[in-house]
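new request in #modeling-help
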Amino acid sequence: MGFIGSGYIGGTVARLAVEAGHRVVLSNSRGPETLADMAAELGPRASAATSGEAAAAGDIVVVTVPVKAFPHVPAVPLAGKTVIDTCNYGPERDGHIPELDNRSLTSSELLLRYIPAAMLVKAFNNIFFKHLRSLARPAAADRSYLPIAGDSPPAKAAVTEFIESIGYGVVDAGPLADSWRQATGTPVWGSPYGPYSDEEGRPADEDTIRAALAAATR
Ligand SMILES: NC(=O)c1ccc[n+]([C@@H]2O[C@H](COP(=O)([O-])OP(=O)(O)OC[C@H]3O[C@@H](n4cnc5c(N)ncnc54)[C@H](OP(=O)(O)O)[C@@H]3O)[C@@H](O)[C@H]2O)c1
């Protein structure tokens, strides 16, 4: 697994991945030396590299950066790869992006413009990182479900296998064009897993996630 971004959500996915036996290559904007402590803490299955190296290393690469950093995501090493997009647009952090403000594009479709040859799957964007950490369940019982959206069936299958390996179930939320159904502020965003004030969160089953996706309005 390669990581473009190793902050709250990238670091949490990386930790769950290592615990499930995957190897991870972390990266950020400041350089691998700033990730040495995190890589050491994660153990021998983790290393730090540049974002280009992390992109090249992963069978699956997780892009988990502020939307304003999309122009810096390395396109060439991501060509033909399965890429997970965890990102949410927030104008207060990202500045105003007209295509996202007027909803002519989803943020995943915007990312795809910068990495057009990647097989992009939206996932993990709808769950608070502390809930993602605490709701992972090794056995299928009491698992929480996460929506995924994407246009490539093989990429979705690979991401489903990965998500199941780290202790979650998956609900197919349709193509990337429908990924607005899991975007910031929708019914499936955050609240199914409990309030932020409760760091443990609460499990959200498949029916809950399906119903929340169906209740989204644009
Ligand atoms: N926090 C959550 O609970 C949560 C949940 C779901 C989705 N999300 C979304 O997931 C994305 C990441 O969120 P976060 O909370 O993890 O953010 P964060 O903690 O601020 O981490 C962002 C990461 O992106 C890296 N980065 C920034 N520009 C980069 C570039 N040009 N190349 C490589 N790496 C770069 C940062 O590296 P430096 O520190 O070196 O700049 C940092 O490692 C956001 O779009 C957010 O909306 C967050």
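bot summary: The two ends are 33 Å apart (CA to CA).
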